[in-house]
Amino acid sequence: MTKKIIIKLNKRFYSIAALVLLLISAGAFSLVYFGVYNVSALTGHTTLVYKFLEHARIQAVDARIDKKVPELSGFDWKNSALENYQRHCISCHGAPGVAPEPFSLGMMPPPSAIVRVARQRSPAELYWVIENGIKMSGMPAWKYRLSKAEIWELVALIKVLPTLSKAQYAQLTESHRDLEANVTQTPLEKRFSQPRARQEISGRVALQQYNCSSCHVIDGIASASYHVGPPLNNMVNRRYIAGTLPTTRENLVKWIMNPTQYKPQSLMPDLNVTRPHAEAMVDYLYEISDAR
Amino acid sequence: MNNKNISKAVFIALIGIGLASTPSYGRALTAFEKDGKKLMITKGCSSCHQLTKLPAAKGLVGPPLDNMAAQNYIAGVLPNSRENLIQFLLNPQAFHPDTAMPTPNLSKQEAQRITDYLWKE
Lengths: 292, 121
Prior knowledge:
The complex is a heterodimer. By secondary structure, chain A is mainly α. Chain A folds into 2 domains: 48-192, no CATH class; 198-287, Immunoglobulin-like. Chain A is 52% helix and 1% strand. Chain A contains 13 helices and 2 strands. In chain A, helix 10 (203-209) crosses helix 13 (275-287). The relative contact order of chain A is 0.08. Chain B is mainly alpha-helical. Chain B has a single domain (29-120), classed as Cytochrome Bc1 Complex, Chain D, domain 2, CATH 1.10.760. Chain B is built from 6 helices and 2 strands; from the N terminus they run H-H-H-E-E-H-H-H. The termini of chain B are far apart. The mean pLDDT of chain B is 85. At the A-B interface, helix 1 of A face helix 1 of B. Chain A: The chain crosses the membrane at residues 12-36. Chain A: This is Cytochrome c domain-containing protein. Chain A: GO terms for molecular function: electron transfer activity; heme binding; metal ion binding. Chain A: Residues 76-162, 198-289 form the Cytochrome c domain. Chain A: Keywords: Heme, Iron, Membrane, Metal-binding, Transmembrane, Transmembrane helix.
């Protein structure tokens, strides 16, 4: 008799639990299906979603940072670091007494005030975020643009920024401008970046870091599903590159580095791909092609 | 209404939403498109180009022609439209002088049929 009642209760419990789960998933489904959750950048996430994402970010960075940090005082933060900061960072993050560019004011989440993160985050965290970027936040990854030393120099500079007054920062950039006038004029990207070791470079990541994936279909990259250019799957087995250049490993590398040299009327733009990055990309294109 | 009936109702509603939002695929080929499909083989397109829905077309000389309607450009030089594709088929070298693609022997009408077919598939 008693046994029977317990079974009956359990049955009731499970059916209620199943119903609640079903209602929750139906609710989540409707939020998406009916477009209830707004993706507009005019306003931020709701507090609940914001807290959740912020926590996820902190945990994710924490789980991945390298605790071994080089001595920051060993890095020169006054020369190339300042130049890199002025060129790549200030437009979104500002500097003491310098506002970010108008476009970045419309970004959501808003880019953080550099002095605030300089005070709150450890050098290891700053290094990781600069090198890796943060997905869907607007913070780009710099791994394929800056060398390790350049990133550490930036970290050293960022750590100094909260100690500077508006006048001191202005003076620093002023004296830097005089110095820059004497430097031979070569493109910045080429002047500074020392290549990283091949094993640190991934062809699949490089194809995303040069935005190949927004125009070409590429196996293994979820967002690469658009047809602006031809699909790159099995590319290495097609006889011609862009209809003109016989397909060889070396020609693929050369084409990626400088398409307009081989086909001036091509709509594919030059993306200033470095040779090591182009080689890594070609390796990946071989990987995703049928073996011949 | 008891629990069982409510869950049944929710389940049926979800299936209904799912079905209603599935786009309809698989319209049969029109007569023009069927002509284009034949021309793809008889005019030699299929020996250089790949088209998943046309198993005979598995050439690896030129680019694959799947999903042509979704392509933004023709041969990387010409904005894609039906009219531009017809013009390109009639004289590829006019748009891309050093292309490896030979000028196919097509009448304007045949180029139109092939375009009809490629835009469908």
